[in-house]
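Fold it.
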Amino acid sequence: MDINNYVSFLKLKKNELSAFVKLTKENDGLCTPFFDIPKSEEETEEAIKGKVDLSYRQMKAAQDKAYFPFVIDIYDLDEDVLIEKTHLYDYVLETFSDLDCSPVIGLDRTENHNRAVIDRVDNFDTIFVRVDSSEFSAPRTLTEELEDLVSEIPSHIDLALIIDFRVQLDLESFDQEINLEDFFTLISESKITFNYFILTSSSIPKSISELLKPHSELRKKRVEWVLWEKYRELGLVYGDYGVVSPEYSDADIAPEIMYDVQTPKIIYTDERELYVVRGGGMRRFGTGQFFDLAEKVINVDFFRAYYCEAEEYIEKVAKRENLVYKPRRGKVPSCGGASKWVEVTTLAHITYMGRLLS
């Protein structure tokens, strides 16, 4: 697959998938999507199979609206669970086999995971190798392990190395022992030819409460952009996790208490900053808080008025002009719920970053 100047790492969930479909319809080719199947509420064969099957149906429906090649991974799922007596990734690749997807291997994956890809190697033109940033503290060892990992992949297949920093909240806590320059020197002298190098990270922690309290707002430097600028001369493709933390999972919150602990929030970005505004508990203060949060967003100095469908939605909500029909009430202002705002802010982010880097 051809890889764009921007790779967007998303959860394969309805709202984030919907955002990418809208981007593709309006701006095809702005970014390459990388989807992680989200964590299941239970780590049983039945539950995980259900999550994979649902993810496939959602992706199939999305592809019917707008075709796009994508990358599929199971970073958040328990690889020890067998599905119909086969390895989980084996089942995923078989399930998604009629779609234009590329697989992922890694040093931290089970042998059966990587084998599921190697045994199907002729089905792909690109294979992604996802490596956690902690591996780069020993670049020589890492290079040797990567040589072993890709040794069975034919030379005509493209290889894309993902350097995944996951969550980096600030540069002060960044691991200074990581030396990408040494690694790139060793790779250039090795037997491996990587066609692409992708650097990805996120400035958003698993819980938004790590950044700010309810009923507050925050502006924060985006570490992912700073890291990429630091290493971009090495020829790295820019990647990020958008407006959802790579560590976040709905499955970590019991459904029966979701409404009690959830607070509305909007995360709005440009390349260098993110703005977060947060309300109070949904049960006490309601979803109507999104009206006020949207009003705060449109007053941020880097808000891009009517830049794309996402900004238009934010502006209309802020001005109470987003109207929906209600029985016996007629047309009334609507502000959407938490899932809608993930879709909206994801669309705003990937549209802006895709255009910026194109």
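The chain has twelve helices and 14 strands.
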